[in-house]
């Protein structure tokens, strides 16, 4: 018998993507993409610009409907459940390259907003939750600063805290450090790696291979809208990967 400590819900993938296609006009952007992410796992997705990585995340989050195929989230096909999108998005946090914070709100207000508006939490409860999250992302002293008074690395950590405030079951990160100055990349990746090690199920589009080495359970290589390689971290860094993935890695490392 395998690992008896796992519950049924942990054995079943949290997210199961089966053969999704997505076109914009005549251009097919995603081609029969299939991926599984189990609860507590971190998947890193790499691949050239234009290969469909952001589109894939946007389909998972229902910001774009997939044309066909299935996206099972906790066993339910959400691929075209656009009516349920707000409810599903509550359970899937997303962090973007350019932070996308509300500029007219302070750091802590950015984090408090959704718990109050969407979950109906009281102001004082939302404040407590936000303060704990500010500690978690290691900038409690910046609670009352506005986004334009914060560094890029600090803004991105606020964006992560804001996503976590909804207690998501899955976090999606779309190139979260690619708009940052090099000295700030580490502070953001450290927070993400800590969350992963604590069991936050995550899909991370990034070319930070140091992060992948530290935090990824699976590494996926996409090219031209296709999943070309999907390997465990050990297989991937052990060199038993597809030749196109290897060539891509040689370019970015
Ligand atoms: P990546 O994140 O890997 O760089 P994207 O998913 O952003 O790739 O984009 C893949 C392709 O899809 C690109 O050629 C892009 O121009 C195209 N694309 C993305 N979103 C749209 C859209 N809303 N309408 C038309 N084309 C789009
Ligand atoms: Mg992208």
TrEMBL record:
<dbReference type="InterPro" id="IPR027417">
    <property type="entry name" value="P-loop_NTPase"/>
</dbReference>
<protein>
    <submittedName>
        <fullName>Amino acid ABC transporter ATP-binding protein</fullName>
    </submittedName>
</protein>
<keyword id="KW-0472">Membrane</keyword>
<keyword id="KW-1003">Cell membrane</keyword>
<dbReference type="GO" id="GO:0015424">
    <property type="term" value="F:ABC-type amino acid transporter activity"/>
</dbReference>
<dbReference type="Pfam" id="PF00005">
    <property type="entry name" value="ABC_tran"/>
</dbReference>
<keyword id="KW-0029">Amino-acid transport</keyword>
<feature type="domain" description="ABC transporter">
    <location>
        <begin position="15"/>
        <end position="249"/>
    </location>
</feature>
<dbReference type="GO" id="GO:0016887">
    <property type="term" value="F:ATP hydrolysis activity"/>
</dbReference>
<keyword id="KW-0547">Nucleotide-binding</keyword>
<keyword id="KW-0813">Transport</keyword>
<dbReference type="InterPro" id="IPR017871">
    <property type="entry name" value="ABC_transporter-like_CS"/>
</dbReference>
<dbReference type="InterPro" id="IPR050086">
    <property type="entry name" value="MetN_ABC_transporter-like"/>
</dbReference>
<comment type="similarity">
    <text>Belongs to the ABC transporter superfamily.</text>
</comment>
<dbReference type="GO" id="GO:0005524">
    <property type="term" value="F:ATP binding"/>
</dbReference>
<dbReference type="GO" id="GO:0005886">
    <property type="term" value="C:plasma membrane"/>
</dbReference>
<dbReference type="InterPro" id="IPR030679">
    <property type="entry name" value="ABC_ATPase_HisP-typ"/>
</dbReference>
<keyword id="KW-0067">ATP-binding</keyword>
<dbReference type="InterPro" id="IPR003593">
    <property type="entry name" value="AAA+_ATPase"/>
</dbReference>
<dbReference type="InterPro" id="IPR003439">
    <property type="entry name" value="ABC_transporter-like_ATP-bd"/>
</dbReference>
């Amino acid at each position: 018998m395998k690992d008896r400590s796992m519950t049924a819900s942990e054995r079943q993938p949290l997210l199961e993507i089966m053969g999704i296609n997505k076109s914009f006009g005549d251009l097919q952007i995603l081609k029969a993409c299939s991926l599984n992410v189990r609860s507590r796992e971190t998947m890193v997705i790499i691949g050239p610009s234009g290969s469909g990585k952001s589109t894939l995340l946007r389909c998972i989050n229902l910001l774009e409907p997939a044309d066909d195929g299935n996206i099972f989230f906790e066993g339910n096909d959400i691929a075209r459940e656009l009516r349920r999108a707000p409810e599903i998005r509550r359970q899937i946090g997303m962090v973007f390259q350019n932070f996308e914070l509300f500029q007219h709100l302070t750091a802590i207000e950015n984090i408090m907003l959704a718990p109050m508006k969407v979950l109906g939490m009281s102001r004082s409860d939302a404040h407590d939750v936000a303060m704990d999250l500010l500690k978690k992302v290691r900038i409690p002293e910046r609670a009352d600063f506005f986004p334009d008074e914060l560094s890029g690395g600090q803004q991105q950590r606020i964006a992560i805290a804001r996503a976590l405030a909804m207690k998501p079951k899955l976090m999606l990160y779309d190139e979260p450090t690619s708009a940052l100055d090099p000295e700030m990349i580490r502070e953001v990746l450290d927070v993400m790696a800590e969350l992963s090690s604590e069991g936050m199920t995550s899909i991370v589009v990034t070319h930070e291979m140091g992060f992948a080495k530290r935090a990824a359970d699976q590494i996926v290589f996409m090219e031209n809208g296709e999943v070309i390689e999907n390997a465990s971290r050990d297989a991937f860094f052990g060199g038993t990967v597809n030749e196109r993935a290897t060539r891509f890695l040689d370019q970015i490392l």
